[in-house]
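Deliverable D5.2: sample structural annotation.
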Amino acid sequence: MIIDTTEVEVQAINSFSRLESLKGVYGLIWLLAPIFTPVLGITIGILVIVWLERKISAGVQQRIGPEYAGPLGILQALADGTKLLFKEDLLPSRGDIRLFSLGPSIAVISILLSYSVIPFGYRLVLADLSIGVFLWISISSIAPIGLLMSGYGSNNKYSFLGGLRAAAQSISYEIPLTPCVLSISLLSNSSSTVDIVEAQAKYGFWGWNLWRQPIGFTVFLISSLAECERLPFDLPEAEEELVAGYQTEYSGIKFGLFYVASYLNLLVSSLFVTVLYLGGWNLSLPYIFFPELFGINEVGGVLGMTIGIFITLVKAYLFLFIPITTRWTLPRMRMDQLLNLGWKFLLPISLGNLLLTTSFQLLSL
């Protein structure tokens, strides 16, 4: 019996190459999974926020709201996004096309990067950096550059004014927000988001920074609303004055990216309020310590991660009721009132709060 060794070798080489290619595919999937999983979760979170805002605003105005696209209208935001995806992408004939196209992308990407330092559970964070909160502040400062590029590239005076307003508003409220974050870092002896959550967990419910920093929480709330350009701070896109501000010349998916950026910013602000002031993934009621009850800090399994994510998201979405109801309650401010509130009122208060926090920390040494 004669065996063709050449054929056997070819088959062995082919099977080995298929095995190596499968290993390469599995390695690529394992590499991309930590990236696309948060993106998918964030996308679903945005759809939930849009649905919540429409339903809550409908309740405030005593109307029904979306109810036909899916059960209770839960697919309405997805339908609107699909519609914008297939709409024609119009470009201004005399505008700067490169700036016009890059603006929405920069606004979305800069906010997406902020999610890398948010802990959704114990050891469940993309990047546990020692300067996590300040990285978020620095990254969020890039988004107004994209809005300014969009307004300038549109070659439209209303769009350009909207971009200028967005930049001025961001600078005015980024400065009061920073001392509030610095006060939290002083209390926690760390700028890592994970360390800040664990520092609050030591004393349970009463260890939340909401009770230890009520002034900073109020300033942070107002500044974050202004950063998200929510009413009463939506001056960059005031339709009565600037048509739609920096969005005026946009259509299709680029127009939709601005709304994605707005809701991304709203969700990341709510998550940072949860992390900095509401104890993060720890839900400790008086005399009932849920982390110890469920073993979240000790057990790193699927159950612990699921409970941590659930607690974090519940706190974030409960906090979202404040900016959503504020939008339908308070009237829009004038530009001079907005700047005066940031520079003449919130900034001195935040600096005074930082001084008090520093003094108490020095006295406690």
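Annotation notes: Strands lie at 284-285, 288-289. Residues 286-291, 294-299 have pLDDT under 50 and may be disordered.
The annotation will be released with the project's public dataset once the embargo ends.
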